[in-house]
Design brief:
The chain is α+β, with helices and mostly antiparallel strands. It has 4 helices and 4 strands, in the order ααααββββ. It has a 4-stranded antiparallel sheet with strand order 1-2-3-4.
Amino acid sequence: MRSRYTAYVQGKVDYVIATTAARGRLAIDRDELLAYCQHLRGVSLAVVETLAGGPADASGVVGFVATLRVQGRKQVQRERSRFAREGGRWVYVDGDVLA
């Protein structure tokens, strides 16, 4: 989770794509993602929940609060993200944005 947040704020879109589950990767428009990241500034990331995701687990959940500046405007994103192992690596599967 932390590495994906960092990749977003540093504009490392290839890493974001590579750490997305195979079934979701095809839906990502690289140029659109890059344009989004160019206007993004990271403020903070707080992991507020973890379920499973240990060395012996095939999946896990991370709840987080990300504070960002997007085109100069402050945004707070609260999400509960699901991750799974693919080829031995953790990848983002999907998430629920929380109010």
